[in-house]
């Protein structure tokens, strides 16, 4: 039975949507915050950190100045490089299979992540997902030049279009309010997933909210029987 999609391309957030990197993030955050004399985070507080750019989070969550936040990001990134960007990371169950299924159906896909692009590339390679993506897009290493979700969504659409992809009906899959806001800036509807690190209210403004990969598949892939 033929499978198609109501979307011409799919954009994916990474942290909290495709990949659970919380163990490594918590460990590195603990080291970084203690280094700068700030209280270490609890696992429950990871929802404040995973998703937004770290440059913003160091300011919003522990009151750093922009200059201090830039220094903290640089320190945090040295820890990540020493760890290896894939250490402790795992795929959320079923998501990798859905990405492969969409690729097999010929649906162009791209990442649109606030995570530094070199780390996104490393993760997609590690989980054998790289061949599924026409464009792998993340932030610049300083998380300042290209960092907002709106800018990253724009860049993902630009790279897809440059590759000859029809971007007239894109959809963004994400797990934070930053995804909803970034999609809205470009009239890109968002499907909000509930297995990441969000608070309940963050799905407001999304076109749909799902709690399972099976439900997400229903919204991304249609068979002739669904017509």
Summarize the structure.
The chain is α/β, with parallel strands linked by helices and 227 residues long. The chain has helices at 22-35, 54-62, 66-83, 95-104, 117-126, 149-162, 177-184, 213-220, and strands at 3-4, 9-12, 19-20, 90-91, 109-116, 135-139, 170-174, 190-193, 208-210, 222-223. 40% of the residues lie in helices and 16% in strands.
Question: Would you spell out the secondary-structure blueprint of this structure?
Answer:
Elements: E1 3-4, E2 9-12, E3 19-20, H1 22-35, H2 54-62, H3 66-83, E4 90-91, H4 95-104, E5 109-116, H5 117-126, E6 135-139, H6 149-162, E7 170-174, H7 177-184, E8 190-193, E9 208-210, H8 213-220, E10 222-223
Parallel strand pairs: 2-5, 2-7, 5-6, 7-8, 8-9
Antiparallel strand pairs: 1-10, 3-4
Helix pairs in contact: 1-3, 2-3, 6-7
Can you tag this structure with a few keywords?
227 residues; two-stranded antiparallel sheet; 16% strand
Structural commentary:
The N and C termini lie close together (12 Å). With 227 residues, this protein is of the alpha/beta class. Strands 6-5-2-7-8-9 form a 6-stranded parallel beta sheet, sandwiched between helices. The longest helix has 18 residues, at 66-83. The chain contains 8 helices and 10 strands.
User: Gap between N and C termini, in Å?
Assistant: 12 Å
* Largest sheet, spatial ordering of strands: 6-5-2-7-8-9
pLDDT averaged residue by residue: 92
Class from helix and strand fractions: alpha/beta
Strand residue content: 15-25%
Q: Helix count, per DSSP?
A: 8
The rough form would be described as globular
Specify the biggest β-sheet. Answer: 6 strands, parallel
Tally of DSSP β-strands: 10
Radius of gyration, whole Å: 17 Å
pLDDT below 50 for ≥5 consecutive residues: which ranges?
A: none
- Summarize the amount of helix as a percent range: 40-55%
Please provide the ordered H/E string of secondary-structure elements. EEEHHHEHEHEHEHEEHE
């Amino acid at each position: 039975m033929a499978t198609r999609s109501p979307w011409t391309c799919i954009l994916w957030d990474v942290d909290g949507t495709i990949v659970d990197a919380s163990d490594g993030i918590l460990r590195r955050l603990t080291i970084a915050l203690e280094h700068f004399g700030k209280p270490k985070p609890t696992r429950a507080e990871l929802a404040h950190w995973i998703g937004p750019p770290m440059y913003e989070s160091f300011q919003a969550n522990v009151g750093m100045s922009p200059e201090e936040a830039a220094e903290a990001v640089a320190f945090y990134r040295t820890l990540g490089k020493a760890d290896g960007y894939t250490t402790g990371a795992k795929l959320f169950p079923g998501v990798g299979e859905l990405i492969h299924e969409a690729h097999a159906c010929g649906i162009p896909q791209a990442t649109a992540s606030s995570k530094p692009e070199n780390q996104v590339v490393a993760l997609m390679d590690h989980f054998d997902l790289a061949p599924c993506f026409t464009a792998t897009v993340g932030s610049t290493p300083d998380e300042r030049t290209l960092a907002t979700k709106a800018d990253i969504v724009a860049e993902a659409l630009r790279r897809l279009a440059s590759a000859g992809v029809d971007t007239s009906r894109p959809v963004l899959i994400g797990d934070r309010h930053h995804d909803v806001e970034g999609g809205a800036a470009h009239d890109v509807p968002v499907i909000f997933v509930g297995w990441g690190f969000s608070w309940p209210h963050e799905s407001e403004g999304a076109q749909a909210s799902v709690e399972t990969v099976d439900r997400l598949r229903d919204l991304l892939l249609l068979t002739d029987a669904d017509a």
